[in-house]
Amino acid sequence: MATRSLLLTAASIFSLGSGQTVLAQTTAEEATVSAGDEIIVTGTRATGRTRLEAASPIDVLSNATLRAQGTSELAQALANVTPSLDFPRSAAVDGTDSVRPATLRGLSPDQTLVLINGIRGHASALLNTNGSVGRGSSAFDLNTIPSVALDRVEVLRDGASAQYGSDAIAGVINLRLREAREGGGASLSYGQYETSVDASRTSYKRHDGKTWNASVWQGFALGEDGFLTVSADYLDRGFTRRGDLDRRVTPARVTSRFGDPEVEQYSLFANFGVPVNDTWSIYGFGGYQNRDSTGAAFPRLANNANNVTSIYPSGFLPLINVKSDDINSALGLKGALSGWNVDLSLSYGRNELTLHTRNSINSTYGAASPTDFYDGKLIYEQIVGGLDVDRRFDIAGDNTLNVAWGVEYRNEGFQIKEGQVESWARGPLGANTALGSGAQGFQGFSPANAIDRHRDNVSGYIDLEAQLGELLIGLAARGESYSDFGETGTGKVSARYDLTDSFALRATASTGFRAPSLQQSYYTLTQPQVANVGGVATIVDTGTFPATSPVAAALGGKALDPEKSFNLSAGVVFRSGGFDLSVDAYRIKLRDQLALSDNIGTGVNSSAAITQLLAPFSVSAARFFVNGIRSTTKGIDAVAHYRLPATAAGTFDLTVAGNVNDVNLTRVPIGTGTITVPALFGQQRITALEKGTPRVKVTGQADWSLDGFGALVRATYYGSVTQPASSLVDYVETGKHVIIDAEAHVPLFGKSTLALGVNNLFDVYPDRVADTNAANYNNGGTAFPYYSPFGFNGRYLYARVNLNW
Hints:
Elements: H1 2-14, E1 58-62, H2 63-67, H3 74-81, E2 85-86, E3 103-104, E4 112-116, E5 119-120, E6 150-156, H4 161-164, E7 171-177, E8 184-198, E9 203-222, E10 226-237, E11 262-275, E12 281-296, E13 319-337, E14 340-358, E15 373-395, E16 399-417, E17 451-468, E18 471-482, E19 486-498, E20 503-514, H5 518-522, E21 525-533, E22 536-544, H6 550-554, E23 563-576, E24 579-596, H7 608-614, E25 619-623, E26 625-643, E27 651-667, H8 683-691, E28 696-706, E29 709-718, E30 722-723, E31 732-733, E32 737-747, E33 752-759, H9 774-778, E34 796-804
């Protein structure tokens, strides 16, 4: 039934004359390249292989495809044109509003490896600990890389841990930077939402999210054959507000700021390569981004127990400010030695998040409380040194064998720095049990939470590819040794057979792993509270603890093991003239999957025995990461592309692509060996993993160009997603919806163009959150589910001027 649903939906979209740009498309803004003939470097170490010649499914997305959209976010641009990728717009989930994760094939965001020019990128310092998609993960932040700096993006939809190491369970995203010796370009865009909000209790119009985006790039010649490409990007985006009426106030009004945060950021990137002699060359890149993002927590009413009316007589809306400083850099030397191609590289990446809570209060300080708080910092940094060597051997006629091997060293560090005292402490009024702790909205990190942890690992791999006539066979193996949990090994076998020049079969089988991140192993955030212990008011802690901390160990916590996977895929590739089609089925079995437990010591997870175990630590409740989940993910990816021959009427590109994906948790632990609780990992978390991303997503696009004029229309079908809640009655379905985007561009003067476009042409929203929903009532009006894969902002209009030289 799932396959039939995909085919019927794809056919209905295609009948509208729409297509999709999962493949690299030729538009008026880029040079002509036949789709399918793009040379790839991801998933293979053999040179000269094209996308349609690969043994694994790969999407190639050009810079023009990514930038011919009404979004300034790379992750959103990728999700718009890649059906297997999801990028929900979370809201009111603390720092995750500002550092949003993307998921591939419905798996955790940290189970997709991101490379920059083939070199491992670094994760964000943020650990997603709230109820968003990707809870418990710390993944690469795709939005730290501006689209203007990219030549294209390659998305490998296949397990590749044996080739690239940890994290490549769902696949690999390789961000390939521009390499230009000359020329340049600039763009300036403006857009805003023009929408009618139809919530359960009210309807109103909004004109918000005003966004300015300016970017520029320039190529410079270095010597006779070298290049330096420099790019810059600036973004200024206003917040959006999509709340429902808050009936707790009189008269009822929208009190929340439920929607996107406001963002101001700038990004700088440089990429270079220069020959040293006829054999060797030096290359490298460097990038820096500064992002200042402010989202909102839920409103606090005037009569809230945690309010101080002398400061906020009408209540207050806490704002969570995240300032991100992000660095990506690498330096390498490559050339030939005794017939072998040698690539030696060293990279450094760093992400620093400075956290503030603004327009808030710590009620235990009464009228003396600050209203702005410094909450502390999260810092992650990574150093990677790698040596990659390969050589092609001719064997028995036209047959070839490509031999690649390499070694890698990686050092990681994670720090938590404490915030100001008032951001986390209980002040002079702290004995009052009715008062909360720390800054309202997001509390700061205390000295007990501050850490500085490091680890390193070494790895080695061998990767063989043999082309034996029409048969391609690949074998890869990798071993890794980590300083914190020991050794692990992975392997991969792939095969492809070209039955004819037009038709081929392909399949892969692989094992994979993902090392627990330092953030998962050591993140700590506790909150002091007043509890009645033996009839005496006592300060106790509750919060998130490392799995190896004394508190977690008392409850059965253990050192975390790596997640492990077994991947199978099989597919077909067909190509004839301007048409190509690929269909690939896959199954991913995961064991020892990591998850952040529910709170132990409260609600259904409380008992006298647990209270006794926690008592020596003055802790009332705790949560920590555990291994033990098993899951099976099955699905089908299909991509069909047709490029009509150019005529007097212009050039037409049509693409339809879809993904059917089913995630099923086959084992969920209910105990740690020391304790058994009803919800160590409760139904709310199970639902988020199984139904938090669309089961069916189909995208289509039709692209036309003629003499500098052009137009495209894109239609995307999203299957329904379930947003869980603490009570089953408050679960929310996003519903099944089709989103239509369109853009047209015309030449202005010289090499400049003007583009006008609209995202979500028909102002479609996910299904509303019911009036009776507890979250809608208690939190001041969460009008729409933030699990929605296409967001909940409505229609967006934009204009963009492009200039090339």
